[in-house]
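are you around this afternoon, could really use another pair of eyes. what follows is a protein written twice so to speak, once as letters and once as structure tokens for the fold. i want to understand how the tokens follow from the sequence so walk me through it. anything you notice is useful, everything is just below.
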Amino acid sequence: MLVNVSYNNKEITRKVDTEVGKPFLLKERWTMGGIGSPKLFITETSIEIHNLLILDNNVNACNIEMRPKGIIIRFRSLLETFALVIPYYKLSVYKGDFAVYTIYRDHYFIKVRSDTKAIQKFFRKMLDYKADNAPTSIEDL
């Protein structure tokens, strides 16, 4: 779900919270060692996101926020903030080339550079949290 989150809209906030859960409590954030990613530089995107990013001449960057049932990828374009909301059951992450991670949800995707250890550590934390909190699959029974 790609939404404009620039303004405080209760309907959009409710939709995001039902899709990926409410934000972690401060105590949970502390024990997890943080829930936000460092600044991620976007290298390639799907057409819908690309059409938003080309509207201005700023550097294309985003960040990821972990939630109990998914992640939110936020990026800015033309003084507006957009969010790609991805529940864990629809999240696919691929490590492609030397330093590129690709994040998929249905027909949306974002490729980001991962040229620092902090970025790689965050992706490992995110994928570990997804694996630990996923429902039991049929193969595990």
Summary: The chain has one domain: 2-131. The mean pLDDT is 91. The helical segments are 10-20, 26-32, 47-53, 117-132. The longest helix spans residues 117-132.
